[in-house]
From TrEMBL, chain A:
Name listed for the protein in its UniProt record: Sulfate ABC transporter ATP-binding protein
CDD domains in the record: ABC_NrtD_SsuB_transporters
Domain ABC transporter: 5-229
Naturally occurring in which organism (per UniProt): Mangrovactinospora gilvigrisea
Key words, A-Z: ATP-binding, Nucleotide-binding, Transport
InterPro entries in the record: AAA+_ATPase, ABC_transporter-like_ATP-bd, ABC_transporter-like_CS, ABC_transporter_ATP-bind, P-loop_NTPase
Protein origin, superkingdom: Bacteria
MF terms in GO: ATP binding; ATP hydrolysis activity
UniProtKB/TrEMBL annotation, chain B:
Organism: Mangrovactinospora gilvigrisea
Lineage of origin: Bacteria, Bacillati, Actinomycetota, Actinomycetes, Kitasatosporales
Region Disordered, residue ranges: 1-33
Highest taxon of source: Bacteria
Descriptive protein name: Sulfate ABC transporter permease
Protein localization: Cell membrane
Bilayer disposition of the protein: Multi-pass membrane protein
Gene Ontology biological-process annotations: transmembrane transport
């Protein structure tokens, strides 16, 4: 089966003399797969995401994204405050080359998809944190990319809002068949969302272990199955962090 | 509420595709709860009443102006200086009325305002691309960035003698001095505006595919707008004071009579009420343009961004 994303012996250092941030990372992600990159701060998980997004180039190895275009969502919603919610979505449509006449209707359709119907003309600052992240998701979807890269997109939200966005994201990515790479430092979040959890070790960043999450959707973050697997992952993460200190 | 809905209908309907078109089922608990959360979290803003605005925004400056006039009148009435050297506000008001009935005030203010506006617009046309290049091209920035900041610190009245030698007693001299005063401010404002853009906005623009000219037009310029507006405001202040310096020195019968020339006439006639009248008019016009043009513009931009 052909991969949507493949990394072959990828290394990254920011200066020739600096220690590598990522060393010899091999990762294949299948089309439609939801992979969570889990690790402590500074393990290079955001760097890995930037490599896949093409925002940075690897120092060695190959990053290929046969699936084509990638869309990115950041921790900060990164919406443009001078545009309305719909204006933000429309800018992505414009950059993609959607004709002007179709943009408004398409933006409204995407906002309805993230459950913000009728909010096309809302100002970004007039929306709640959860709503802003949903607009950001709609803007990312407007790029019509088959790969969605997410860098801790829900980290700044409260637990209740976050829980609902988990459900929204799962619903949308399953419906659209998106390939998702989701960076997080929250093991429960990773198990709640992912088909696969990839644990990154730090200094240098490398893949320490992987888990396939064989739980059916819908999942609940409070369920015993999610809690059990995330406890195992957290234990392993603890070993990695302790090992890095030596 | 969430506990009563363990099946997460949102996901299951999504999988079958109905919710993809954005048609959430009506009995959708998640959507209802979400809307409730959104409503709770959405910031609300109340408009202050007209009375509150009058009390908090209008009253303090009015009190300050009245106090200044009062103290001025008291000092003048105390005859510390002879009244021809320090006339009170009433004498200055009479000087203004005298000019008003002569019908010269409109022409004088109009001449200066016209020069100021044209000079300012020329400065915007030159300063904007200059600022953009300095902000975005590293080499240019290293080369002329410090010079631009230095020019901003140089009082533009220093350019008047040079400009007179280059252009004589002409409008060209006046415009040259305005440009040398205002262009650095406007360019620096844009540079500062670009510097203050959160890097996340530029990255977001890049991942959206808004690059090159499209990135400048749709991301860079709007993101830099608050800083740019601050630069324009300062540019106007510099243009206006440069204009006054130029008019004060560049007096000639061939040139139209502006506020600066009017002020110089007052000096030549040793007519202190006329001099003070000119100073007050210069102040009023300069502040008036700021209050009528730049303050509302800045406020509109900032409130639309929730700042």
């Amino acid at each position: 089966m052909s991969a949507a994303i493949s990394l072959e012996s990828v290394s990254k250092r920011f200066a020739p003399a600096a220690p590598p941030v990522l060393a010899d990372v091999d990762l294949r992600i299948a089309p439609g797969e939801f992979v969570c990159l889990l690790g402590a701060s500074g393990c290079g998980k955001s760097t890995l995401l930037n490599l896949v997004a093409g925002l940075e180039a690897p120092s060695a190895g190959r990053v290929r994204v046969p699936a084509g275009r990638t869309a990115v969502m950041f921790q900060d919603h990164a919406l443009f405050p001078w545009l309305t919610a719909g204006g933000n979505v429309q800018l992505a449509l414009k950059a993609r080359g959607v004709p002007r006449a179709e943009r408004r209707a398409e933006a409204e359709r995407l906002l309805a998809l993230v459950r913000l119907p009728g909010r096309h003309d809302a100002r970004v600052h007039a929306l709640s944190g959860g709503m802003r992240q949903r607009v950001a998701l709609a803007r990312a979807l407007a790029q019509d990319a088959s790969v969605l890269l997410m860098d801790e997109p829900f980290a700044a939200l409260d637990a209740i809002t976050r829980d609902h966005l988990y459900a929204e994201l799962t619903r949308i990515r399953l419906a659209l068949g998106l390939t998702v790479v989701f960076v997080t430092h929250n093991a429960r979040e990773a198990v709640r969302l992912g088909d696969r959890v990839v644990l990154l070790a730090a200094r240098p960043g490398r893949i320490a272990r992987e888990w396939t999450v064989d739980l059916p959707h819908p999942r609940r973050i409070e369920s015993a199955a999610v809690a059990g697997l995330s406890a195992e992952i957290i234990d392993r993460l603890g070993e990695e962090v302790a090992g890095a200190d030596v | 509420m969430a506990a009563a809905d363990p099946t997460e209908t949102g996901e299951t309907t999504g999988v079958t595709g109905t919710a993809v078109a954005g048609t959430a089922t009506p009995d959708h608990d998640d959507a209802g709860l979400e809307a409730g959360l959104d409503a709770l979290e959405t910031p609300r803003r109340e408009r202050p009443s007209l009375l509150t605005v009058a009390r908090t925004k209008v009253l303090p400056p009015v009190v300050a102006v009245v106090l200044v006039l009062l103290v001025w009148q008291l000092v003048a009435a105390a005859h510390i200086k002879p009244s021809y050297a320090l006339p009170g506000p009433i004498a200055v008001w009479h000087a203004f009325l005298h000019q008003w009935y002569l019908g010269t005030v409109g022409g004088i203010v109009g001449t200066s305002l016209g020069r100021g506006a044209l000079g300012f617009l020329l400065s915007v046309v030159l300063g904007t691309p200059l600022g953009l290049v300095v902000a975005r091209v590293r080499f240019v920035r290293t080369a002329i960035g410090p010079i631009l900041s230095g020019l901003q610190a140089l009082p533009s009245v220093a350019w008047v003698p040079a400009a007179i030698i280059w252009f004589g007693l002409s409008n060209a001299t006046i415009y040259a001095v305005i440009l040398l005063g205002a262009v650095p401010s406007i360019a620096n404002g844009l540079v500062a505006g670009v510097e203050q853009i959160p890097p996340i906005h530029l990255r977001a623009g890049r991942v959206l595919g808004a690059t090159g000219l499209r990135g400048i037009r749709h991301v860079l310029l709007p993101a830099a707008l608050p800083g740019y507006l601050a630069g324009l405001k300062q540019g106007w202040a510099f243009a206006w004071r440069s204009l006054m310096a130029a008019e004060l020195i560049t007096t000639s019968p061939d040139l139209g009579l502006g506020l600066g020339q009017f002020l110089d006439q007052g000096r030549e006639l040793s007519d202190m009420p006329m001099v003070l009248c000119a100073i007050v008019l210069i102040l009023v016009v300069g502040v008036g343009i700021e209050l009528l043009v730049f303050t509302p513009l800045t406020r509109r931009v900032l409130t639309s961004r929730g700042l």
